[in-house]
Amino acid sequence: MHSRIFEQIMSTENKFKVIVLGERNVGKSTIITRFMYDNFDHVYKATVGIDFLIKAVSLDNSSVRLQIWDTAGQERFRSLIPSYVRDSSAAIVVYDVNNRRSFQQISMWINELRTQLSMDVVIMLVGNKTDLTNEREVETAEGQDKANELNVMFMETSAKNSNDIKGLFQRMAMALNFKANSMPR
Length: 185
Ligand code: GDP
Ligand code: MG
Known about the structure:
Keywords: GTP-binding, Nucleotide-binding. By secondary structure, the chain is an alpha/beta fold. Helix content is 38%, strand content 22%. The chain has seven helices and six strands.
């Protein structure tokens, strides 16, 4: 009985809302669907208008549930709807490494996020579409420099090839778990 209650408490504590932001067409919905349906070979059409999806990520001696929110198209307006941002623990901010304009908007998204939420929200900057090697406009080092400047984590991914998509959410889960465990109760 006790252990059951304990489990329930643990399960609510280990759930985090993660929002995915960035310009249109950078691959946000594809990253989410890749992560959710990793076992399938066929390419999923990115869902339009979904609210959120929940998936558990296993860590060494615990499990973290990520509640992942797609933008449902609000990136068109270049501003975040407060109800979407509310209660988020973390954000994944995505640009397309083949599209410099999408990279130039990164500071704008991160500043807006920190203004609306708090300065200590966990943020991962992601350069996506690394599979299009001939078209690259933003080098890895530039992405890393930007991440250092803004004090956020950094990764490059290919949602098309599923490259580092699992690692992305694994790192996010670890960071959130670490932060939750180091917070004073
Ligand atoms: P969103 O607007 O940010 O949600 O972008 P989508 O997930 O809808 O993706 C926009 C387009 O980019 C779609 O045609 C995707 O198939 C494509 N795409 C997404 N990720 C990748 C990737 O890693 N590599 C390549 N080559 N295309 C991608
Ligand atoms: Mg989308």
